[in-house]
Each structure stands twice: as C-alpha cells, then as structure tokens.
Amino acid sequence: MFAKSIRKDHYGYFFIAPFFIIFLLFGLYPILYSLYISFTNWDGIRTPEFVGLGNYIAVFHDPIFYKTFLNTLFIWGVSVIPQLTVSLVLAFILNEKFVKGRNIFRAVYFFPHIVTAASLGLLVSLIFDWQSGGLNHFLVESGIIHDPINWKNNAWFMRLIVSSILFFQYFGYSMIIYLAGLQGIDPSLTEAAEIDGATKKHIFLHITVPMLKPIILFQVITSIIGGMQIFDQPFTLTNGTGAPDRASMTSIMYLYNVAFQSTRFGYGAAIAFCLFIIIILFSVLSFVLTNRKKA
Amino acid sequence: MEAIRPIRRDIPYAAKPKRRLSAGMVLMYIFLIGFAIICIIPFYLMLIYSSHSNADIASSFIFLPGKDLWANYSNMAAKINIWRGFMNSFFIAGSTTVLSLYIGALTAYGFAKFRFKGNKQLFFALLATMMVPGQLALIGVYRLFSTFGLLDSYAAIILPAAANAFNVFFIKQFIDGSIPDEIIESSRVDGAGEFRTFNQIILPILGPAVSALGIFTFIGSWNNFLGPLVLFFSQSKYPLPVLVALVQGYYGMDYGLLYLGVAISIVPIIIVFAVFSKQIIGGVAIGAVKG
C-alpha cells in the first residue's frame, strides 16, 4: 500500500505542468524578452537594434522619468498613510461586538475596492469637471464658493484627487485585512487589560498595534508594489494626458506613453526594469526598518 | 466578566460613565456613517446623473432621478456598441475564471498531495511570482503575441491570466486543511486513475472554496484595463473599461452618455457584490491571513 502511493508521486508533475508551461510561455519568457528589449532600440516593427546600456543611461538623465516617479511617490504616500491608519481605527471599532450594523459597514467600506478603477477615474473626472461637474455646482449653489474652481488646471489638486481615489478604493480593503488579523489576537489579552482598567485607547495603542505589526508590514509592502503601478485611475481621470503638464502622470502612464504611444519599446522596457529595481529596494528597506525596530 | 458586574453595581456613580460612553458612541457612529456616505455618494450621483440630459447636468447640482435615461441610452446606442463591450468583458472574465480556477486546482492538488522531488522549491518559486509587477512582462507579451499573430485576440488576455499563482496558493490552503489522503487512497484502491480521481472526487469537494475564489477572479478580470488597452486594437474586441475610456476620448462633452457608460460598467459589480459580499470579503480575509 505504502510502496504503491510512493510510486504515484511522480504524477504530481503532470498536475503542476500546465501551470508552469503557461507561466514559462506567458510570464517568464515575456519578462526575459522585455529585459532583452530594454538593451535595444525597437519600434515594434523592425528588428531590435542593440544599444547596450544606452536606454538605462537615458532613463537616469530623463527629467520626465523623475517627474513622473516623484508624482507616483507623492500620490502613493499621500494616499497610503491615511489608508493604513484610518482603516486600522475602523477595523478596531468594527471588531467590537457592541457596534450595530458591523457587517453592513464592512461591506459598504469594502465595496469601492472592487469597482472598476478605470470607470471610477472617469466618474471622478466628470464630478470634478470645471463647468459641468456636480461638485462645483454643489459648492456654488450652497454658497461655499462664489465661482467654480478649475480643479483640473491645478497640479496639486490633481495629484490629491488621484490620492483620494486610491484612498477611497483601498481603505476598506486594508480594514478587512486588519480585521482578519484582529481575529488572530487572543481575546484574553484584551480582557485582562480591561480588568486592569485599561481604556480602549490604551488597548489600541499597546496591544492591538504591536500585535498587528506583521500585518502592517505586509500591507506596507503590498501597497508599495501596488502604489508604483498606479495607472487606471489617473489615466481615465485625465483622458490619458496626465494633465496639467504631466502633473498627475504616473510612472506606468509614462511607460505606456513611451512604449505604446511613441513606440519606443526599448526605452519603455528600461523604464519598467528601473521601476522594478526601485520596488525591490523599497520593499527591502521597509522590511529592514520594521525588523530593526523589533530588535 | 461575571466577576466584574456585581462590583460595578456597588459603585454609586455607575450611571455617569455609562452616559459619557454614549456620547462617545454617538461620535463613533457619526464617524462610521460619515465614511459610509463617502463610499456611496459617487455611485449614487453616477446613477442619478445618467438619467439627466446634458443641459440639466451642465446647469445645476442634481440629486434626484431625471427622465432622460432612455434618451441617453439611445444616444449611446447610436455611437458605440456598449453591449458588445459588455459581452466581451463577460466572455474574457468568464473564460479567465474557468481556466485559471481549473489550472489552479490542478496545480494546487499536485503540490498538496504528491511528494515529488522539488515540490517545496517549485511552490516557493510560484509564490515569488506574485511579487513581480505585471508591467514588467507587458512589452514582452506584446512582442510574443505579435510574433504569433495573436495581438488583438481574446487569447492574448486570457492565456497569460490562466496561470494565477494566488489561486493556486488559495486552493492549496483549502486542500491542505480539508481533504484527507484517505479519500485519494480509497479512490486508487477502487482502480480510478489519477486524473479521474481529481476530476470526479477532488473537484466536487473543492466546489465551495473555488466558487468564492471564482467571484474574485471574475471581478479582477472584469476590471482589467491596461492589458486590453495595449493588446486590443479593434473596438469590437474592447471590454467595458476600455470602451468607456474610448467614449471619453470621442464624446467628452456628452455628459449623460458618459455617466451612463460608467454606470453600465459598474452596475454589474454592484449586483454581484450585493449578492456575494459575504463570500468576497471572507475570501480577502482568508487570503490575507494565510499570506
């Protein structure tokens, strides 16, 4: 019996083969090919022409690359800090049994996360429109402002709007992940603290937050990977332009413009790999920082 | 807890902290309801505005439904084939879901129940692929499909999405937790082949776990924007998000039409979420904790 089941083990390769064949063909091979393209000039039609590190050197001297990268960093930072803190407070509240309608609140907060990001970007663009947008009409008619504000003409407004969309889409998601983590905290810990007279605030700061540290780290790292890839919302918000003057253009929007609009695929691929290296550096950095605090 | 209550009753000012707590409760509910309103308003406005004419939308703030929903719809129908986009989205998301779940289940079962050489290493490699951003492959995928003449075909989107590492991970967790080796052994004793055992015995058991994951995969694919934007050229192939973005480029001043287009791409998600919110939220939570 035992010997028989041992002999079956090589069947495992047949079960995992389809996944790895698809992954090698449509995952790994394209990545390696992108890497090769990044060392060439390729217009999408003729044979790629090898240029060595030329594209990478050009990226380092490209002011637009830096601008779009800083845009991305700003948009990400402004959205991620409230996202990870507000959601933690909400999770803490919604983990309390006495709160009425907990499941409804959870569902409502989570809902924006699964809405089509591209459609949401367009919706926000319509609501923030200068002449016809609902927001300006509301503000003017309720007497808060006198003249409609041209939101889309202001670089900082546009970046903040993108940040707000990201916050809107991700705080509920973060909250659900925190809630899952809170289920893992031994209730006898908080009960003991309550008996000793600790307030909710103390429990939150001295038990909940330290216990959730691994989950906070997990969220920071996944948000870095996601944050560097922001594309859909600012793309449809600005009809692909990143207006005004590329103020709301993210790194991936720039990559898209370079590779698929200007058909400079080699340069686009070099941008993609530079971003990948930056993502790895940030992930390692946040991992090291969080672990050092522990020691 | 039982031990505390009698002591509290003896405190003369027992009522006071209770009243202070209720003031805090009011603040807390204001906070909770405030966020809930923020989450709902954009979608409420979307539905309201899609039923108004351009003139209405351009002139004042609106918060009640109008009468021009049909006019906006016929305006849209004259310009773009939104239902074609709807069917494209449905077909792409549906095939991606079925394919990636079946391959995910196969792979997860292979890793969970067969102790072949390199099992752990290969599984670790699979998990590592989740950390790689998709844009890295985009240019290579573009080149690959242009070589095969598969650009502007559904396969260009569906095939790469079929190898979904998260689905493998999720299903493996489920198999590890709830499918004992004895089931497989007894099927083998009955003389069933390995793939028959998988298809007829394992797959039905995986049903509930896989269906929750399926909703998630479907929504993820439905929302995909950059992939189809790059790999499709003909409007007849565009899924909804790309079609809606295209409408923005062509008919940017046609507000009623734009709101309606956005609504048509989002309403299916509202419906799916209204029905399956428990499974969707539960799936996110399980995936996160195990990860």
From TrEMBL, chain A:
Write down the membrane topology.
Multi-pass membrane protein
Instruction: Choose any GO biological process term that the UniProt entry carries and state it.
Output: transmembrane transport
Which Pfam families does this UniProt record tie to the protein? BPD_transp_1
Q: Which residues cross the membrane?
A: 12-32, 73-95, 107-128, 156-182, 203-231, 265-289
What the entry lists under PROSITE patterns is as follows:
ABC_TM1
> Which SUPFAM superfamilies does the record cross-reference, listed alphabetically?
MalF N-terminal region-like, MetI-like
Q: Tell me the keywords, alphabetical order.
A: Cell membrane, Membrane, Sugar transport, Transmembrane, Transmembrane helix, Transport
Location comes to: Cell membrane
Domain called ABC transmembrane type-1: residue spans: 69-286
Q: Which residues form the signal peptide?
A: none
InterPro entries reported for this sequence: ABC_transporter_permease (IPR051393), MetI-like (IPR000515), MetI-like_sf (IPR035906)
- One of the record's GO cellular component terms: plasma membrane
Q: Give the UniProt family note.
A: Belongs to the binding-protein-dependent transport system permease family.
Q: What is the recorded name of this protein?
A: ABC-type sugar transport system permease subunit
- Tell me the organism's taxonomic lineage: Bacteria, Bacillati, Bacillota, Bacilli, Bacillales
Automatic annotation (TrEMBL), chain B:
Output a single Gene Ontology CC term carried by this record.
plasma membrane
* Compartments reported by the entry: Cell membrane
Q: One of this protein's GO BP terms?
A: transmembrane transport
In terms of InterPro entries, this protein maps to: MetI-like (IPR000515), MetI-like_sf (IPR035906)
SUPFAM superfamilies per the record?
MetI-like
Q: How does it sit in the membrane?
A: Multi-pass membrane protein
The alphabetized UniProt keywords are: Cell membrane, Membrane, Sugar transport, Transmembrane, Transmembrane helix, Transport
Q: Does the keyword Transport apply?
A: yes
- The principal localisation class reads membrane
Q: Which part of the chain is the ABC transmembrane type-1 domain? A: 86-276
User: What are the TM regions of this chain, as residue ranges?
Assistant: 21-45, 90-111, 123-145, 151-171, 201-222, 256-276
Pfam families reported in the protein's UniProt record: BPD_transp_1 (PF00528)
Family membership, please give it: Belongs to the binding-protein-dependent transport system permease family.
Q: Record's PANTHER family?
A: ABC TRANSPORTER PERMEASE PROTEIN MG189-RELATED, ABC TRANSPORTER PERMEASE PROTEIN MG189-RELATED-RELATED
Protein name per Swiss-Prot or TrEMBL: Multiple sugar transport system permease protein
Protein's organism: Paenibacillus rhizosphaerae
